[in-house]
Amino acid sequence: MNNTTAIAPPSVKHATPDHPIHDLLAQRWSPYSFSDRPVPDDHLASLFEAARWSASSYNEQPWTYFVATKQDPGEFERLLSCLVPANQAWAKAAPVLILTVVSLRFAQSGKENRAAVHDLGLASASLSMEATARGLSVHQMIGILPDRARELYQIPAHFEAWTAMAVGSAGNGEAQPAAWQERDRAPRQRKPADEFVFTGAWGHPAALVAPAAPVSVATD
User: Fold this and answer.
1) What is the pLDDT of residues 138-153, one digit of tens each?
2) Does the residue 219 lie in any domain?
3) Is 32 part of any domain?
4) What are 30-43's pLDDT values in tens digits?
5) Which pTM does this prediction carry?
6) Cα separations (Å) of 207 from 92, 115, 138, 192?
């Protein structure tokens, strides 16, 4: 039996929001299948420019990014080796890999920066939205090998390798095992807003997101 028979996933897998949102947010999704089409350097530069202008606590900008493209096979393999094997299996098809690193202390005071990981997330979200606007996809992953990344990239103390990203155009899945194809074809799902937007007390949904009460219909 051929476990890599592909049914092409959509290049864009739209969200189905309960309330209107910007179309870029609805278009953003994280494929496991990537085309081998290279990402032009000017597009990549704009992705990092979007991250550069993200908000951060005290304008600390605690993020650092390592980037590797398949145009440099040695660098690509080095960054790929910092992913856990399960992520290497699919991410190796992407034309671009990115490793994110965060500074956990403020540069001036040396004190703990409790907003650092939050701010890295904001920067990476900006990067992802810029990618979406350019017809690219970003798949972020927590499954990395931080100790290996520290050794290979000589990451200093108080900085931590945190996540990685695969970047490129969504592919048709033909080179991926069936399990990854199933994930790419599955509908996007999220828990409803009334499960995480509260007012007054924990577990009390805010009225603006609470489901509407069913309408009773009188019968004779």
Assistant:
1) 999 999 999 999 999 9
2) no
3) yes
4) 788 898 899 999 99
5) 0.84
6) 45, 29, 34, 13
